[in-house]
Amino acid sequence: xxxxxxxxQVKALKNGTVIDHIPSDILFKVVSLLQLDSVKNxxxxxxxxxxKRMGKKGIIKISDRYYEEEEISRIALIAPDAKINIxxxxxxxxxxxxSLPDSFTGIVKCPNxxxxxxxxxxxxxxxVIKKNPVVLRCPYCEREIQQEDIQLL
Length: 153
Description:
alpha+beta; five-stranded antiparallel β-sheet; 11 strands; elongated
């Protein structure tokens, strides 16, 4: 009976992408990063779900949507331990491992108010200088950002 209860926490997905093991406190940052508020596909978001490994976790299921590697690498920026599962006909056909690229453009805000990216119409850029925990550096002003201080645009 306990297995059935766990399965009923979040409805099964026929086809699409499941992003699992998202820390509960950053679930909505992932929602924002993926711009899920403008997606027309069916989306299921679960938060504070019981997890043996994490205690509490978040999960996002996006029906009939598959993400490119660049989009997946962005998730690694704020949720490096999340798991990506590709679902077809209710079966997991692929599990993707998140990995950070060496740099990001246009998705993170520089916290330095004097940085040129905050004063001129230009995209931000950050270099990944440490992967666990994530530390980024703005090449324009040299400001470093710790993972917990990352603000998405």
